[in-house]
Amino acid sequence: MHIETQKNKIDKSAKDVYEFLTDLKNFERLMPDNIDKFEVINEDRFLFALKGMPQIVLQRKDQHPYDKIVLGAASDKLPFTLTADIVALDEDTCEVLLSFEGEFNAMMAMMIKKPITNFMGTLSENLGSI
């Protein structure tokens, strides 16, 4: 299953956005209002839970300075990645595209598509106001 947000223009440099996203504690500022729990486990891992949903642990999988950060599920039960692609437009502006990639059976994909789409939209929207 592949979900991506629209490109979000941000009035910050690609370097600033990249550094914001590589500091995992900043993800708490991007979370939806219905967040129930957020905890940084270590410099490469954090967990969060939205009200009524199970906890999810994300860990840093890959990063390329100033243009890409990849987070992935720490558990193999629900394998997925969340990628932020950052494109510099000029020295003070960039665009960020968030994408979600996961391998789920058809029933699971149908159940989680809308909540994940909404979650990704909220992350992208909140990223625009950092």
UniProtKB/TrEMBL annotation:
InterPro entries: START-like_dom_sf. Gene3D superfamilies: 3.30.530.20. This is SRPBCC family protein. It comes from Maribacter arenosus.
